[in-house]
Amino acid sequence: MSLENKVAIVTGAAGGIGYAIARRFLSDGAKVVIADVDDARGEAAEEELKSFGEVRYVHCNVAEKLDVRNLVAATLDAFGDIDILVNNAGIVIGGDFLDLDEADFDRVLSVNLKGAFLCTQAIARHMVDKVEAGGEPGVIINMSSVNAVFAIANQVPYSISKGGMNQLTKVAALSLAPYGIRVNGIGPGSIMTDMLASVNSDKAARMRVLSRTPLGRVGEPSEIAGVAAFLASDDSSYMTGQTLYADGGRLPLNYTVPVAEED
Known about the structure:
By secondary structure, this protein is α/β, with parallel strands linked by helices. It is built from eight helices and seven strands; from the N terminus they run βαβαβαβαβαβαααβ. The protein has one domain: 3-Layer(aba) Sandwich (Rossmann fold). Helix 1 crosses helix 8. Keywords: NAD, Oxidoreductase.
């Protein structure tokens, strides 16, 4: 079990990719705190995941500094340490560039980027103190996106936030490297989460997704969890400041691929 006795925090873990990462970490031997703002789903996730290992749900709006402080305190109270942070919490608000409301722009950047900064800073401080006391360095994983590289015209704040996430990964990696703390990112492509649920019922939308995906299928949250498990483990011990793209081949593609007609 590659993460045995490690303590991990996964934000935005009441469902989707965050939930899958929490489940994988538990299966790999870690103790996990799942953080989210959806208390009903978070508490249900805690119940479901108990069969895999030690898990706690903590309410946390990552955009609020006090909530982040409480998350750190609750994790230390429950498990006594923090070895791994996954900044997965994120939201999407669509809108054309010329019509986008300022409040919506601020809300997405506040959760997706500021929230990752606040969590990284707070938990890195704990990790640095531990290293200076003779302990082992920790690992931070940021959830980016293929949208950090290409742009979608009606996903303005989301695309900007993920571009910023890649830079946060780099600057945090450089800042924390002297302590041995590693910071890496994951950039998913089209993954079967609630955000992509419409492709199940909309044939045209599904065809568009598959036409830009050389592997010819939508990815599963568990496949992103596998990348997170690798980055959290000693198998990636010489990697920092990198973002790994799990996108079915989408980023190298500069055209569309043929898609078989569905019945």
